[in-house]
Amino acid sequence: MPLKTARQIAEEALRKIGVYSINDREARPEHMQKALEWFAMILDEAGVFGLPFLRDETVDITLVEGQTAYPLTDVVAAGVIFPLNAWLVHTSLGTVRGIDLLPREDWDREVTGSTQSEGEPCNLFVDQIGLRTLHIDRIPTEAVASEYKIRLRAQCYVENSPEKEDGKYSQIPPMWNIWAIYALARYLGDGTIKRLPAQTIADFSRTAGSKFAAIQAAMQRNRSNRNPTANPHWM
């Protein structure tokens, strides 16, 4: 499922409350502006619970002699949600070699402090508990640190406002789409744009709440180096 912009989420929420039909050319500008304002407030609140905006980002990590752990906040200001690919790059020759990303269970089984030797990294693991940290399986020597760097492609948090550029660029993980639509519709239909029956608002709130709780639980279960394995219709 593709990422939806904040504007697309707002359009779906406006359809839910009955003020924007699929036959309409576009939503009324005042409705869209109000929807984006409320979506920004909802996401500010949800951000306390860890709801991220996402984007793919490729970052270079400089190796340091004798260092096997690298906090990703040093290179990605908003943080990594999960890694996608990794490469070892020769800084002068430009050659690139793939590095295996290990899930936690494989890393814990195969790599320990006592088994780490000096050399070029072959495997890495991104620990996503607490401060997200990249770990490599070999201890860089002075020569390795001066000649190589790690290139990591990851899905990262991005600080972004739904109101920026009229909601064109803000994105949330696809699995949060249904929650976002119902959460926004609940506020827009409670008098902000239209007054819906109390039962309808309660239904919106219940759907949004159950989606939020279920997806949070799925994210906790999948804090590893694998892409989330939630039910396919969430992704």
Structure report:
The protein has about 240 residues and is α+β, with helices and mostly antiparallel strands. It folds into two domains: about 5-50 and about 160-235, Orthogonal Bundle (Hypothetical protein yqbg); about 55-155, no CATH class. The chain is about 35% helix and about 20% strand. The protein has six helices and eight strands. The strands form two sheets. A four-stranded antiparallel beta sheet has the order 1-8-3-4. Strands 2-7-6-5 form a four-stranded mixed beta sheet, with no helix packed on it. Strand 5, helix 3 (about 105-110) and strand 6 form a beta-alpha-beta unit. Helix 1 (about 5-15) packs across helix 2, helix 1 crosses helix 5 (about 175-190) and helix 2 crosses helix 5. It is elongated, with a radius of gyration of 22 Å. Mean pLDDT is about 80; it is low at about 220-235.
* Share of residues in helices: 25-40%
* End-to-end distance: 6 Å
Q: How many whole angstroms does the radius of gyration measure?
A: 22 Å
CATH class of the largest domain: Mainly Alpha
The CATH topology of the largest domain comes to Hypothetical protein yqbg
Query: Which word captures the global form?
Result: elongated
List the keywords.
elongated, about 240 residues, 6 helices, 4-stranded antiparallel beta sheet, 2 domains, single chain, about 20% strand
